[in-house]
Design brief:
By secondary structure, the protein is mostly beta strands. It has a single domain, classed as Metal Binding Protein, Guanine Nucleotide Exchange Factor, Chain A, CATH 2.170.150.70. It is built from 1 helix and 10 strands, in the order E-E-E-H-E-E-E-E-E-E-E. The chain is globular. Bound molecules: zinc ion (2 copies).
Length: about 140
């Protein structure tokens, strides 16, 4: 696969590249996604761990419990605080990348589902062909 995308944190200390198509792309309005983004939803782009390479800088880990009651190992830039990446307890072979950290303008991914819509604002709607779930299905 030669599909390469690059990104990084706000200050530029942390840089990464992804080397394949994502395994999963989710929009999410859970408590963590709204806190980490400061926005009503986050978009998570998941790759196999081996398809993500950090090319510069170091990430600081922080472990928390999700709205689904599972652990999230969040990783952020210790200089600027941008949450760049994470691992989820129920997707241990995947690495999540915060969609907005890909270099702009490159909103090349497309959500396959929208989860935790129970906590989304009523004025926010994705395209009608994106399946919506009130919480996390199947976990
Ligand atoms: Zn940074
Ligand atoms: Zn979320």
């Amino acid at each position: 696969m030669s599909e390469i995308h690059e990104g990084g944190c706000v200050c530029g200390a942390v840089r990464f590249e992804t080397r394949a198509a994502p395994q999963r792309v989710s929009a999410c309005s859970c408590g963590w996604c709204t806190k980490r983004t400061g926005a009503p939803l986050g978009v998570s782009v998941y790759f196999l761990k081996e398809d993500v390479r950090f090319t510069q800088g170091a990430l600081t880990p922080f472990r928390l419990t999700s709205d689904a009651g599972r652990w999230i190992e969040s990783e952020f830039c210790g200089t600027c605080g941008t949450t760049v990446s994470w691992t989820l307890e129920f997707l241990p072979d995947f690495r999540g990348i915060a969609a907005g950290t890909f270099d702009t303008p490159s909103f090349w991914y497309r959500p396959q589902r929208y989860v935790f819509t129970r906590s989304k604002p009523d004025w926010l709607h994705l395209d009608g062909d994106v399946p919506c779930f009130a919480a996390m299905p199947g976990s």
